[in-house]
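Blinded run. Sample ID left blank on purpose so nobody reads anything into the name before looking at the predicted structure. Input follows.
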Amino acid sequence: MRESMFGSLGRHRIFLTAAVLLGAAALLLSSSLQRRTKYSFLDRLLFDLAFPIERMVALPAQSVRGVWNDYLDLVGVSRENRDLHRRVSELAEENRQYREALLTSERYGRMEKLRDKFQQPMLPASLIGVDSSSWFHTVLLDKGAHDGVRKGMAVVTPEGVVGHVLEVSSRASKVLLVTDRSSAVDVMVERSRARGIVQGLAPDRCELKYVTRGEDVKPGDRLISSGMDGIFPKGLAVGKVVRVDRVHRGLFQHADVELHVDFNKLEEVFVILELSPQQKLLREQAQRLG
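Blinded prediction complete.
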């Protein structure tokens, strides 16, 4: 079959050669005629004969140029898309950093208001670790004895009571949260001034205990620190009463308490470095009695 194909090409080689030469001559003639200003009858006849051949040669060349230009356009669009995607990513990261800085600024603004309200030296600290085991509910802070932190100091946020310092090293400290069962905060009902003790029950819940049965306590009542435990200053938000239990017999009533502080979102806190004069007196009396 290959011999037949090559034989056919050999037989038509003369005609193919003649066609190519004729085409080349026609193109040269056409180019020459296009530079003239006057044409004879023979010139116009030759131009008409050369025009189809010139068109057959020009159309593939134009097609190749069109495909190449389209390819260059696609390459340019692809590069622009990459640049746009990179810029969008950069802007998204800048926006995230701006929002984080704004939220941090708002938190520190609220903390400054808390410091101004109580007029006691307070040290800002950040959480660096959490330990919510079955035995203790504690967090680690990035401030320690080197910064003036001592065992027993109160730890608070603008939202309310967090806990007190349990252990101290030179550069860090461990805080026992109010949600721990061994924690206790002396509180009062803001509305009726009834006093009791808030003790930890669960990661986000506590119990109000030792409130005499005759005291006025209702669901929705706000609980604040009484300042009588020698740790927390008076007036700090602690939580809200969600349910009161008067069924059990005895001298006291109990209530479930929802804490104001969201411990899952805890980031920055204040360590109260100095007690109020009243707290100092209460602590001295407790030490003498102990």
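Unblinding after everyone has recorded impressions. The chain has two domains: 1-119, 122-289.
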